[in-house]
Design goal:
The protein is globular. The protein is mainly α. It has one domain. The protein contains 17 helices and no strands. About 3% of the residues have low confidence. The longest helix is centred in the N-terminal third of the chain and has 35 residues. Helix 12 packs antiparallel against helix 13 and helix 14 packs antiparallel against helix 16. Keywords: Membrane, Transmembrane, Transmembrane helix. InterPro entries: Gate_dom (IPR011642), Spore_IM_YlbJ (IPR014226). Pfam families: Gate (PF07670). This is Sporulation integral membrane protein YlbJ.
Length: 403
């Protein structure tokens, strides 16, 4: 009862402070809101929508079940999750946050995962996609494509280690029967593929329409969280709360040999990864290795913005949020440590083999490679794709409402 009252007071006070901040800093709030909106409709919506729609179709036609049977001998011993977790893991890496949570929740609703298995799976299948790491962070913020190799390696290796760590989650409360040892069987996989397709009674048009509606509804929710946390991050900075929180972080950074000026970018990154990564790249007092370690932590922790998106998605199921939050903290420290370990042999090694290792090797007039081209193409085409699919969503939703 006492804890409940404290929570009520805390939540009411927090919302009141944020409302006061909106009134006090209207211009800054508006700019932050526009920034979050641009990020959503230029990058997030067009990059995630195809993966969400295709994932729904693959689940409906039994392809995921087919992949699950094939990957069962790999995923079960390593991570103690069913083989379908391999599909979620791959899609999570390819499409980025919060695809892993979306697919895990979907499979849990279909009873393809137990609650404990879903909590294990969601903890290591949410990651940043390669386009964001190479295009936005490495090239867009640091002007250094070589840095993307270090950031991506530490990010995905760290998530793999989190998966191995989380296999021990739920041992005491998981009272289910141990699954039988499975072997690779193409015949069994094809049988499950056919059985799942037969169970799906919806015609192709209905299945596709449902996939589009469900995907766009999820992306609208994600867009709301991105805009909200962009505003919150800006308000916390102008209300001096970020600086106050950074004071406690400064002592830890100094003990580790990092400059204290990295504290504010780190705190900002714990709320929103894009802003935190951008601020980290602008700290001139830090070495490139120190910037890379902090950026790796920010990417792995994935910010309260993404975590709120995941919490909202998981709330539709019985999957608990706290294992995911613990995994994000573990992933942050693991990614930072792996960046430190790989720096000399990998990043400095590229310099030895003739690849430049300076902080800013890409000038405005140089071609930075496929990552830059792809990133800018996605950014330019993003708004048109977003508007087009929102129109389709409105048409489909109106047609369903009439029925």
């Amino acid at each position: 009862m006492y804890k409940s009252r404290i929570k009520t007071i805390f939540l009411a006070l927090s919302v009141t402070i944020m409302a006061g901040g909106l009134i006090t800093f209207p211009q800054e709030s508006f700019e932050a809101s526009i920034r979050g909106l641009n990020m959503w409709w230029e990058i997030v919506f067009p990059s995630l929508l195809p993966f969400f729609i295709m994932s729904e179709m693959l689940i409906g036609f039994g392809v995921v079940k087919f992949i699950g049977v094939l990957l069962e001998p790999l995923m079960r011993p390593l991570f103690k999750v069913p083989g379908v977790g391999g599909f979620v893991w791959a899609m999570g890496m390819a499409s980025g946050y919060p695809s892993g949570a979306k697919l895990t929740a979907r499979l849990r609703q279909e009873k393809q995962l137990t609650r404990i298995e879903a909590e294990r799976l969601v903890s290591f299948t949410n990651s940043s996609n390669p386009l964001f790491i190479f295009g936005a962070v490495s090239i867009g913020f640091f002007y250094n494509p070589n840095l993307g190799i270090i950031l991506a390696s530490s990010h995905y290796l760290g998530n793999f280690c989190v998966g191995l760590l989380m296999r021990f989650h739920g041992k005491k409360e998981n009272l289910e029967k141990k699954p039988k040892r499975s072997t690779l069987s193409i015949k069994q996989a094809l049988r499950e593929l056919h059985r799942t397709r037969i169970k799906e009674k919806r015609p192709l048009g209905k299945l596709l329409g449902d996939a589009v509606l469900s995907s766009i509804q999820t992306l609208l929710m994600i867009g709301g969280f991105i805009i909200l946390f962009s505003v919150i991050n800006k308000l916390l900075y102008h209300m001096k709360i970020t600086g106050l929180l950074a004071k406690g972080v400064e002592y830890v950074l100094v003990l580790l040999g990092f400059p204290d000026v990295l504290s504010i970018p780190l705190i900002s990154g714990m709320f929103e990864i894009t802003l935190g990564s951008q601020m980290t790249s602008g700290v001139q007092e830090a070495t490139l290795m120190q910037q890379a370690i902090i950026t790796s932590f920010i990417l792995a922790f994935c910010g309260f913005s993404v975590q709120a998106q995941v919490a909202s998605i998981l709330s539709e199921t019985d999957i608990r949020f706290y294992p995911f939050f613990f995994a994000r903290i573990a992933h942050g420290f693991l990614a930072g440590f792996i960046t430190f370990v790989l720096w000399n042999p990998v990043y400095e090694g590229m310099h030895m083999f003739g690849r430049p290792s300076n902080s800013y090797p890409v000038s405005a007039g140089q071609d930075a490679g496929w990552e830059t081209t792809l990133y800018h193409a996605a950014t330019n085409a993003g708004p048109l794709i977003t508007i087009g699919f929102l129109v389709i969503y409105i048409i489909l939703y109106a047609a369903r409402s009439r029925k």
